[in-house]
Amino acid sequence: MDCLFGRYTPTPLLRNHLRLGGVNPRGERIDVTSRYFERGGVPWLPVMGEYHFVRDSRENWPRELKKIRAGGVGIVSTYLFWIYHEETEGVFDFTGDRDIRAFVEACAGQGLEVFLRLGPWCHGEVRNGGLPDWLLQKPFRARDNNPGYMEKARSWYQHIYDQVRGLFYRDGGPIVGIQIENELVDAPEHLLALKNLARETGFDAPLWTVTGWNSRFGARIPVDEFVPVFGGYADAPWARTIEELPLCTHHAFDPQRNDSAVGTDLLGGTAPDGWALPYHRYPFATCELGGGIQPTLHRRPAVSPMDVYAMSLVKLGCGNNLMGTYMYHGGVNKTGRTTLQESTATGYPNDLPILDYDFQAPLSAYGEERPHYGLLNLLHLFVQDFGAVLAPMEHVPAAEFVPETDGTRLRYAMRTDGRGGFVFVNHHQRHLRLRDVENAVFLPLDTRFPPIDIRGDTAFILPFGLTLGGETLQWATAQLLCREGDVFVFAAVPGIPARYAFSGREVVPVPGEKISEFTVGQITVRTLPWERALRLRRSDGKTYFDDSPAPPETPFTLTPCAAPDPLPPHAEELALAGPRETVWSRLEAAEPRGFVTLDFPFDIAQLYVDGALAADKFYDTLPWRLPASLLFGHRCLLAHTAPREDVYLEP
């Protein structure tokens, strides 16, 4: 089966057209062209992962940031939730787990840069979208240019700036980016006023962003002041239905950036007043590619590792030049004078757990590595070492577009500069089994790959027409991972024999079940089995295999008991879905090491440790993993309600 591509037609490259960019004390510049970011005059494809410092404990930051860095992330993005820092008007708290300066410095200590998401409104499934209760009781409108709100926004920005002063890129610090507001789609004057306010306060970064989704015509933004950033999720727990949703569009190679525009008959049109976001002026950048999903009271999808990996690979193939995963590391909400989660009681459409914000992320709320941590790292290592090659390359579609509903035809696309490039293949669709493909022959530009069979759940990238250390790789049926000096490391894709063709040299087959090497001229080609590649990590510039054992399963006992009298604070949340019989049990861990796994169906569960709510969960079919250290030596009570039918659970 010949796999043909559309014609490659280079698009004009715009420079110096946006009011963005900056220089650090070493003279290095970060700039933004219309297709990609540049760093030191070289194309740069950043990898960004979301980790909310206030949703973790300060003592955990260095350890967890080290994991984030080892997973190939270069930039940590984090929200500043106003309600967490000024819950009482005029009383600011940037201490302990709320210490943004200490967090930014901890990022720098692990070689990570920082993208601050300032708000004032953030969402992030936080009460009032992060706005304090007292602010909403004022006689002026929030998220508006009126003097009352802007005065309070100025105070908020000033207090953040006072914490992070001297840590910006211009100072030689790690803060390279700032996001203003979130999901504000039709207020360009307010977005510009907030940027001007932030700059007057002292904020300075080469990259300024706003979210660009929620309108089929693109959000209305100040065109030259920001890069619009986009997202995509494998499911939608905020959807009102409890039925299975239509198939995920993000597993098809559709280059449309705007999530809300995918699949509409007005794609590429303009609003009635003529507005259309000028996508051609910006690189394709994402800030919210779902690293998982957050269950809600009525809807509990469970996202698979391949759901996450395939979506990120597809977006990369469609031209994504800033990979932003939300969430990359899960977290645990805090409580204050109120509970701080999104809820219908505060006028929002969804009810969420009081504490749980695990998000089914690559790194769990308690720092456990999930399978998609290793899968995403295959992409992260690749763009770390070859992003300068990939970033200028443009998306070229298959000759025939294959939508997400088609389970019979192969999905693929390429990125190229007209000389060489990469073929992106996705053979995964959430909730749809795709038909196996035999003898697929990719024909990018003037290259002819050998026939390969593509079976089962898989997604991969194949290089062609590349210069590696002075040698020309015509094609390879293995995925390029990273470079170690003159050694080029590939991963053998499961079910596909790893073969290589270099100019002047015959095809070289290599065994896929063990690590193998061969030399071509001055370079060495190393091929890793796929499962081995999933363990590859990088720290301090060196790659290594992380073969540390998984945390042990900790024995525990669960003993039914009477409900405490009086009931502890927050127990009323067990009745969110209506009055329910609640089962109470004593939970005891046999030792402080490892994790306790609770794997039985329920609706809502809460864990109380020494009388205080310590963890909770809406059942989503996935096991509930609790660190034994949270339980051991403490008086622990588990409360849960019975499963119910009026909720979406994964089929």
Walkthrough of the structure:
There is one protein chain. Helix 5 packs across helix 6 and helix 7 packs parallel to helix 8. The strands form 10 sheets. The protein has an 8-stranded parallel beta barrel with strand order 6-7-8-9-10-11-12-14, surrounded by 4 helices. Strands 17-18-19-22-23-26-27 form a 7-stranded antiparallel beta sheet. It is an alpha/beta fold. 16% of the residues lie in helices and 29% in strands. The chain is built from 10 helices and 39 strands.
Strand segment tally: 39
Radius of gyration: 25 Å
- The total number of structural domains is 3
Low-confidence runs of at least 5 consecutive residues? 261-268
The strand line-up of the biggest sheet is 6-7-8-9-10-11-12-14
CATH domain topology of the largest domain: TIM Barrel
Average residue-wise pLDDT: 96
Counting helices, strands and paired strands, the structural category is alpha/beta
CATH 4th-level superfamily of the largest domain: Glycosidases
* Total DSSP helices: 10
CATH architecture of the largest domain: Alpha-Beta Barrel
Shape: globular
Q: Give the class-level CATH name of the largest domain.
A: Alpha Beta
Main sheet record = 8 strands, parallel, barrel
What distance separates the N and C termini? 34 Å
